[in-house]
Amino acid sequence: MPPNERAEKQAAAQQAVDILHEIATILNCHLDRRTLSICISMIENGVNPEALANVIKELRKQGQEAQLESATAAAAIAGASTRRR
Amino acid sequence: MANNQRNRVSNAIDSLITHLVPAGPHDDEPSVQERHDACFDLVRNIFERPGSPAISSDVNHASDLIKRKLIQSNPSQALRFSNLYTRLLSLPVLNQKWAILYLLYQLSDSPDPNEPPPLSPPKPPPSQQAALRPAEAERRSRALRASRASTAVPTPEEEVVQDAFAPGGLKKLPTEKPKRAQPAAAEERLQAQPPVDGTPRKAARDVSIKSTLLADNSNEFEPSEMGLLRDLPFTLQGLSSTTLPFAKDTVLKLPPTLPPPIVSLLHTLAEPSLLYRGLAFFVKSPAKGLLGQSLRAAINNELRSYLTLVATLEGQIRRALSALDETAPRGGIGKAGVTLKRCVVWTREATMGLRLMSLIAEESNTKHGGQLISMIHGFSTSHGDPVVAAFAERLLADVTRPFYDILRRWIYDGELSDPHLEFFVREQSPNDEDRKESKAKGQASVWNSKYEVVDAMVPSIITADFAQKVFLIGKSLNFIRHSCGDSQWVDAYSKTSSKQLCYGDTATLEAWIDEAYKTTMRRLMHLMSNRFHLFDHLQALKNYILLGQGDFIALLMESLAANLDRPAFAQYRHTLTAQLEHAIRGSNAQYDSEEVLRRLDARMLQLSHGDIGWDCFTLEYKIDAPVDVVVTEWGNRQYLKVFNFLWRVKRVEFALSSTWRKCMTGARGVLQTSDEQVLQTWKSTRGVLAEMVHFVGQLQYYILFEVIESSWTELQNNIRKEDCTLDDLITEHTKYLTAITHKGLLGARRRQFHDALKDQARDPADPASSATTEDRNSYMVQLSELLRTMLAYRDCVDGLYSWSLSDFTRRQEADAVHLMHRNKKAKLSNPNPSATAAAAGLDMDDPFTTSAGGAGSLRSELPALQERLGQLGASFKARLQILLGDLAYQPDVDMRFLGVSMNFNDVYQPVKRKRPAAAAAAAGGGSTAAQGQGQAAATANTSRA
After folding, report:
1. Do A5 and A42 fall into the same domain?
2. Same domain for A7 and A39?
3. Does residue B216 contact residue B140 with C-beta atoms inside 8 Å?
4. Could you tell me if B387 and B349 are in contact, meaning their C-beta atoms sit under 8 angstroms apart?
5. Are B532 and B486 in contact (CB under 8 A)?
6. Does A33 reach chain B within 8 Å, measured CB to CB?
7. Contact yes or no for B108 and A40 at CB 8 A
């Protein structure tokens, strides 16, 4: 693959990601560019979009749970420290 | 290759997991790994599941979905999306654009992952729980218990949160929500690193808690929202269902167990249901007229579109209900996107329409025909809400259809096909009060008594002017068809120019109607002048009835004079008609058209005892069917009135001039006498006779030239105009007749300044008495008195003439006898010169004359004659002076002029008639103002005198 062609393709991909990101913003998808590009590559590799949507929702839920856990842990630590004080 | 792909996918999954589920700072390596693995499994599981087959791999489909969503929620962004989309399509790199778009569509409006997750109620921090008021806490725990009882999912709280953030919820606060969410999220992230203090995060949690609580609290009613939604389509169609039965026609029974918010929602939803029920009933009820029917049809159409809306709604509800997760709390309705609130929003516009329609339906019960249209038109023009106006406008297009059908039939066929009396033109009912009255006056005719405009029924979509035009068009067509017998033309006309009229384009409609108006009017006038010779008839009426044709009238009078002097019962129709025929043949009238001449007829009026032929004779001009709309029965009567008056004047003139002629010829022969007294009598008589001739001449001149001819010219000018209609013609002709009768001193009441004042002062008191006083003083009465006086005078003059004649013959005889005597004497003795002198003088006291007794009687007649002549002459003069006095104060210039021309050299002293003292008292008693005016008038009088 000649290098200039490759660069061209990359630029086009970049553009596509730009456009799609903008659409995602309009639609309130809360997808950042990285997630979006991962999704694009997955879909280009033949993943079912509906399933992927479910996956993303599911993973977000997990992420929130994890955050919550860490937060409670932090709160517990903070509480403990105040009580200690 | 496949392997490669799978590898790539799993790599991507890995990165996705690490990206979306970040490891907390306090988590240790194994737990992170563990979670990562769990996530990976989960993802795998989801991917293994068979995807829904419904998704079509069409790029347009996905974009359409997005576009529709955007238009619903945020129209301004839709355009931006379209731009982006076209740019995306032009990019060569991606193969699965639709899939990406579909993914985005699926993820759209998803909750922000950075938002703090709601606190799970089982594990809230103790400080938070303490902060809650006890009651609230209790309720919340109850709610929790209930929710946990109904659902056994591991993470019910998550669902609840998503419910609270359901699209409906987000849309309501499109700007506020992210704003509130964003700072909270930022703080969260900030706080996440140094977990020192919990206070800022507590605020964020409060929000979450509240929404959780809200979501939980709304959960607790029976029947559930799901059940209500299931039954809602039926309710909206006005059908009873188990949860929402209709108790009566106008009562919807709500289940008593519902909480107030839901009840209020259902109240809102009950409105269209009840309105629909009422309207459906109204549509099925029998209509009173065509417009009522069309109104029902139009409303039915609108109801059909309402039902379409309900059907769509039902489809949405069914889809949502089938997609529902039965196990979720509140049935997971929020997620499905169809809630009672939504239904309220969706049916809102339809409710407005239904409300307006039921208002119209209600009002239509009392309104009828054109009023109905006016009412709906009122909504469309004067209602402030543009939605209502547009709705009424749309309704109007359907409702007015029968009206325009009737209108079309009316202006193109001239037929009134209006079985329910809804049009603004109506056939007059024969027992109408007005109609009877006008019939009694003789003004009724086919033209103006067959149809009438009902002002109340003129719909406001057409102006009054326009309605009048429409009325005239139809009336003319109808008249042409039925009275003029020209239905072929009407048929041809309606075939060629008939157009479909409908509501909306008012300008075109007006143009059409104007055109129709012009065509019909032109045709009608054409028929009137060419086929029915209207103008010829008018001319003939003027010539014969108004004595315009001088030679004819003179000849007629001459030939009839001898006949008419006889009593009325000795007049025979055949002699009259024969004389009429003779007059026609002998004058220029013979060149008039046959059409005109055969209508001319001479006959006797109803005779009363003692009348002579002159009083009863009348000429008549017969007018038949279509023309009699112009020359009505009333008009005929006016013509006759004028004819009779003119005929009398003419007769007096004729009598006076024949007497005058006799006197003049006699003056050279038989009237020559040497008696001073007789000569004096004759001189004064001739003077009075000349006065009378002058008077009659002036009167005739005035009526024939000043009145009739000038009115005739005016009439000609007016009816020869280009755009003259039959109505104009009728009014002009009536005006013409009124002018003639008024100025011709026939109809006018003698109306003095005082009388007018008096009438104003006590107008409503007793109009009858004032009318009678006026009648007594009318010119008509004065003139007939004058004419009678003149006739009597003329009789007297004839008497004087015959006395003079007999006197003359007696003198001749006396002369002859004297001559004989003288001859005898001459034979017997010498001639006596003194005797001849005596014979040349008067022979009255000749004791020898044989006719001495007769001479005495003749002699005694002269003073009686003198006295009578003097009396009649004085009375004539007095009456004339009164007439002149009245004429001098006429408002009409022409009538004043008559007075001037009669009295041009101030021979007469016009007498200003004094008002009776009693009347003055009455007027004075009436009101002080009138008194003041009366006094002013009186002083004016005296000063004038």
Report:
1. yes
2. yes
3. yes
4. yes
5. no
6. no
7. no
Those residues with Cβ within 8 angstroms of residue B447's Cβ, 6 or more apart along the chain or in another chain: B475, B479, B483, B629, B726, B730
Residues in chain B with CB shorter than 8 Å from the CB of A30 are: 107, 110-114
Token pair belonging to B141: 């725990």
Residue B831's SS3 state is coil
CB pair distance less than 8 Å for A72 and B123? yes
Does residue A54 share a domain with residue A41? no
SS (H, E, C) B29-88: HHHHHHHHHHHHHHHHHHHHCCCCCCCCCCHHHHHHHHHHHHHHHCHHHHHHHHHHHHHH
- Residue B327: per-residue pLDDT: 55
Residues A56 and A79 in one domain: yes
Chain B (117-176) residues lying within 8 Å, Cβ to Cβ, of chain A:
117, 120, 123, 125, 127, 155, 158, 170
Question: Are residues A40 and A1 part of one domain?
Answer: yes
**pLDDT score at B762:** 42
Q: Determine whether the interchain pair A23/B102 forms a contact, defined as Cβ–Cβ distance below 8 Å.
A: no
Predicted confidence at residue B334, as pLDDT, reads 55
Question: Which B positions 69-98 lie with beta carbon below 8 A of chain A?
Answer: 69-70, 74, 77, 80-81, 84-85, 87-88, 91-96
| Length in residues, chain B | 945
Residues A41 and A78 placed together within one structural domain of the fold = no
State which residues form the domain around A63. 48-85
Q: Can you give the pLDDT at residue B121?
A: 41
Q: How far apart are CA B523 and CA B529, in angstroms?
A: 10
Q: How far apart are CA B470 and CA B453, in angstroms?
A: 10
Total number of domains in chain A = 2
Q: In sequence order, which residues have a C-beta less than 8 Å from that of residue B851 and are 6 or more positions away?
A: B810, B813, B814
Distance from CA of A37 to the nearest CA of B (A): 10
Q: Do A27 and B108 touch (CB under 8 A)?
A: yes
**Does residue A63 register a pLDDT over 60?**
yes
CA B578 to chain centre: 55
User: Could you tell me if A1 and A38 lie in one domain?
Assistant: yes
10-residue stretch averages of pLDDT, chain B, 945 residues long: 71 79 62 76 75 57 78 76 80 75 77 53 40 44 44 40 40 37 41 42 57 54 76 85 80 82 86 89 85 88 90 86 63 64 85 88 83 85 83 85 85 80 77 59 66 82 84 85 81 79 77 85 84 84 84 86 79 84 85 82 74 80 79 84 86 88 83 79 87 88 86 87 80 86 65 43 42 55 85 87 85 84 69 45 42 52 83 88 82 81 80 51 40 41 39
Residue B930: its pLDDT value, please?
Answer: 39
What tokens were used for B913?
A: 């008639």
Whether A55 and chain B come into contact, CB under 8 Å, resolves to: yes
Q: Which of B13, B25, B108 sits opposite A70 (nearest CB)?
A: B25
ipTM of the complex: 0.78
Per-residue b or e along B199-236, where b marks 16 or more CB atoms closer than 10 Å to that residue's CB: eebeebbebbbebbbebbebbbbebbbbbbbbbbbbbb
Beta-sheet pairing, B451-453 with B600-604? unpaired
Q: Which token pair is B854? A: 């007769």
Query: Does A23 contact B at CB distance below 8 Å?
Result: yes
Q: Which residue from A minimizes the CA distance to B73?
A: A27
Question: Can you give the pLDDT at residue B768?
Answer: 42
Give A82's pLDDT tier (boundaries 50, 70, 90): low
> Does A33 share its domain with A56?
no
CB contact under 8 A, B192 and A71: yes
Q: Is the minimum CB–CB distance between B54 and chain A shorter than 8 Å?
A: no
Q: According to the model, what pLDDT value does residue B27 have?
A: 56
End-to-end distance of chain A based on CA atoms, in angstroms? 66
B26 CB neighbours in chain A (<8 A) are 70, 73-74
The SS3 of residue B251 is strand
Residues 6+ apart with CB under 8 A from B813: B851
